[in-house]
């Protein structure tokens, strides 16, 4: 048998470039940041921290350090281990550093947009990195260009750098305050000069951002799992509108804005954060197990085995199984090494795509009624393929349970989501989605059940559910 290989899924030079969204129909990760102040091996700590945050962005990675007199930095396209192979880390001297992993949600994919971004500033060098998205960046960019600013990237992060550069304030922290007061959206920022590190969280607290310590060194990260990787201890989460400044005079707590209604992204609990991370003292694995238990309470159905779609749904599947007494089994196995060899020879073999990413364990599901737990349904294409995988492996019934409400609205805060027209739940009712994905039954966790699972009082702690209920905490573009 021979065939012509055409239309490759892997069309670029690095992981995720040219990936077909129709094949892996999952929400794309945001970004991750990691910062160090006061440790002689800041670059190595940043490397291990970013490696722990790799799930938040696989498109590019970068680290910038300061030795007290000058910056040393390196950025590259691809995974952390690919970007910093050989002796790159040895060249990044200094006790202050910030690092970044990126998946582009705004701006083009390319080395120019890889972070940290480094600029010349009136006080010296300035490096910055962020996780999130600025919803008013296009408006600010246009205004700045009219005033003479020349942009080197298409990233919304550069807008903040230009706002800082144009500030008349002498102190960097005052210029940062002024800049952040002009932007709107979700952001966890790290700013660095030769002698100073500044961390800031948006007024709604949309993105997770934590501070920790390793000896006398201060660390900042998008997820606490990065602290575990370097042996650091988490101190606390940053508060909405807060700005922390660290220099030779020590650490100072300040703020650039009064806190607004707390609106932490609910998808961090559902999908993005690693199970070993903690957010607001809630362990992600424990919360997801509770989501599974809540699903079992809301939508029990009799079956022989429960399985989860790796990796984000495993915890919930365990919770569902514990609640119902139905055995949990590894019915689906994830292949973690599909990146550079992923091809799509022709239309007839297009369906092989999901089989290279996931495999059904035939001896586990054959002749069984299977409950399949997943975190979300976006377009529906992947859900259909996974259901069919289980059927092909011999499952007699496939019941799908989703640990989030129907995903109906696009996100403007740093999650790369399709347009509303491409979101299957915005156009179809649950029964129509069930038919589309070829499941025997389908149930989405209720929003009330999600809140109960997380265990936070939304009125006091606050969360963003805009992708489910369209209640955006800030002004957003028309969609």
TrEMBL record:
<feature type="binding site">
    <location>
        <position position="375"/>
    </location>
    <ligand>
        <name>Mg(2+)</name>
    </ligand>
</feature>
<keyword id="KW-0658">Purine biosynthesis</keyword>
<dbReference type="GO" id="GO:0009113">
    <property type="term" value="P:purine nucleobase biosynthetic process"/>
</dbReference>
<feature type="binding site">
    <location>
        <position position="411"/>
    </location>
    <ligand>
        <name>[4Fe-4S] cluster</name>
    </ligand>
</feature>
<comment type="similarity">
    <text>In the C-terminal section; belongs to the purine/pyrimidine phosphoribosyltransferase family.</text>
</comment>
<keyword id="KW-0411">Iron-sulfur</keyword>
<keyword id="KW-0315">Glutamine amidotransferase</keyword>
<dbReference type="InterPro" id="IPR035584">
    <property type="entry name" value="PurF_N"/>
</dbReference>
<keyword id="KW-0408">Iron</keyword>
<comment type="pathway">
    <text>Purine metabolism; IMP biosynthesis via de novo pathway; N(1)-(5-phospho-D-ribosyl)glycinamide from 5-phospho-alpha-D-ribose 1-diphosphate: step 1/2.</text>
</comment>
<keyword id="KW-0460">Magnesium</keyword>
<protein>
    <recommendedName>
        <fullName>Amidophosphoribosyltransferase</fullName>
        <ecNumber>2.4.2.14</ecNumber>
    </recommendedName>
</protein>
<dbReference type="InterPro" id="IPR029055">
    <property type="entry name" value="Ntn_hydrolases_N"/>
</dbReference>
<dbReference type="GO" id="GO:0000287">
    <property type="term" value="F:magnesium ion binding"/>
</dbReference>
<dbReference type="Pfam" id="PF13537">
    <property type="entry name" value="GATase_7"/>
</dbReference>
<dbReference type="InterPro" id="IPR029057">
    <property type="entry name" value="PRTase-like"/>
</dbReference>
<keyword id="KW-0328">Glycosyltransferase</keyword>
<keyword id="KW-0808">Transferase</keyword>
<keyword id="KW-0004">4Fe-4S</keyword>
<dbReference type="GO" id="GO:0051539">
    <property type="term" value="F:4 iron, 4 sulfur cluster binding"/>
</dbReference>
<dbReference type="InterPro" id="IPR000836">
    <property type="entry name" value="PRTase_dom"/>
</dbReference>
<feature type="binding site">
    <location>
        <position position="467"/>
    </location>
    <ligand>
        <name>[4Fe-4S] cluster</name>
    </ligand>
</feature>
<feature type="binding site">
    <location>
        <position position="265"/>
    </location>
    <ligand>
        <name>[4Fe-4S] cluster</name>
    </ligand>
</feature>
<feature type="domain" description="Glutamine amidotransferase type-2">
    <location>
        <begin position="31"/>
        <end position="249"/>
    </location>
</feature>
<feature type="binding site">
    <location>
        <position position="312"/>
    </location>
    <ligand>
        <name>Mg(2+)</name>
    </ligand>
</feature>
<dbReference type="InterPro" id="IPR005854">
    <property type="entry name" value="PurF"/>
</dbReference>
<keyword id="KW-0479">Metal-binding</keyword>
<comment type="function">
    <text>Catalyzes the formation of phosphoribosylamine from phosphoribosylpyrophosphate (PRPP) and glutamine.</text>
</comment>
<feature type="binding site">
    <location>
        <position position="374"/>
    </location>
    <ligand>
        <name>Mg(2+)</name>
    </ligand>
</feature>
<dbReference type="GO" id="GO:0006189">
    <property type="term" value="P:'de novo' IMP biosynthetic process"/>
</dbReference>
<feature type="active site" description="Nucleophile">
    <location>
        <position position="31"/>
    </location>
</feature>
<dbReference type="InterPro" id="IPR017932">
    <property type="entry name" value="GATase_2_dom"/>
</dbReference>
<dbReference type="Pfam" id="PF00156">
    <property type="entry name" value="Pribosyltran"/>
</dbReference>
<dbReference type="GO" id="GO:0004044">
    <property type="term" value="F:amidophosphoribosyltransferase activity"/>
</dbReference>
<feature type="binding site">
    <location>
        <position position="464"/>
    </location>
    <ligand>
        <name>[4Fe-4S] cluster</name>
    </ligand>
</feature>
């Amino acid at each position: 048998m021979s065939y012509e290989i055409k239309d490759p899924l892997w069309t670029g030079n690095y992981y995720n470039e040219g990936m077909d969204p129709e094949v892996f129909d999952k929400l794309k990760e945001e970004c991750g940041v990691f910062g160090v102040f006061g440790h002689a091996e800041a670059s190595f700590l940043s490397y291990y921290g970013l490696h722990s945050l790799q799930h938040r962005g696989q498109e590019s990675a970068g680290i910038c350090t300061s030795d007290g007199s000058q910056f040393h930095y390196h950025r590259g396209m691809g995974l952390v281990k690919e970007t910093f192979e050989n002796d790159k880390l040895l060249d990044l001297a200094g006790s202050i550093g910030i690092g970044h992993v990126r998946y582009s949600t705004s701006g083009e994919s390319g080395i120019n947009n890889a972070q940290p971004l480094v600029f010349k500033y009136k006080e010296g060098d300035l490096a910055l990195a962020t996780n999130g998205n600025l919803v008013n960046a296009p408006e600010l960019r246009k205004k700045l260009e009219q005033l003479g600013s020349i942009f080197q990237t298409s990233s919304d992060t550069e807008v903040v750098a230009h706002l800082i550069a144009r500030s008349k304030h002498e102190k960097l922290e005052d210029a940062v305050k002024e800049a952040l007061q002009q932007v709107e959206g979700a952001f966890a920022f790290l700013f660095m000069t030769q002698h100073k590190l500044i961390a800031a969280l948006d007024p709604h607290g949309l993105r997770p951002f934590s501070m920790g310590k390793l000896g006398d060194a201060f660390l900042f990260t998008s997820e606490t799992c990065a602290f575990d990787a370097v042996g650091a201890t988490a101190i606390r989460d940053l508060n909405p509108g807060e700005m922390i400044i660290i220099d030779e005079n020590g650490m100072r707590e300040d703020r650039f804005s009064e806190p607004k209604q707390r609106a932490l992204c609910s998808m961090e609990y559902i999908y993005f954060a690693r199970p070993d991370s903690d957010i607001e003292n809630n362990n992600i694995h424990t919360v997801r197990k509770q989501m599974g238990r809540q699903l079992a309470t809301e939508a029990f159905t009799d079956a022989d085995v429960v399985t989860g779609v790796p990796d984000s749904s495993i915890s919930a599947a365990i919770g569902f199984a514990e609640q119902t007494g139905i055995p949990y089994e590894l019915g689906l196995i994830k292949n973690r090494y599909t990146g550079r060899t992923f091809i799509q020879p022709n239309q007839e073999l297009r369906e092989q795509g999901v089989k290279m990413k996931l495999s059904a364990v035939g001896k586990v599901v054959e002749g069984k009624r299977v409950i399949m737990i997943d975190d979300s349904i976006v377009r529906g294409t992947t859900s259909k393929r996974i259901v069919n995988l289980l059927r092909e492996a011999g499952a007699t019934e496939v019941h799908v349970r989703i640990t989030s409400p129907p995903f109906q609205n696009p996100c403007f805060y740093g999650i790369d989501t399709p347009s509303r027209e491409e979101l299957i739940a915005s156009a179809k009712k649950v029964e129509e989605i069930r038919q589309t994905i070829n499941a025997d039954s389908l149930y989405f966790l209720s929003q009330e059940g999600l809140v109960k699972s997380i265990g936070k009082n939304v009125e006091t702690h606050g969360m963003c559910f805009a992708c489910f209920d369209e209640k955006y905490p800030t002004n957003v573009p028309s969609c």
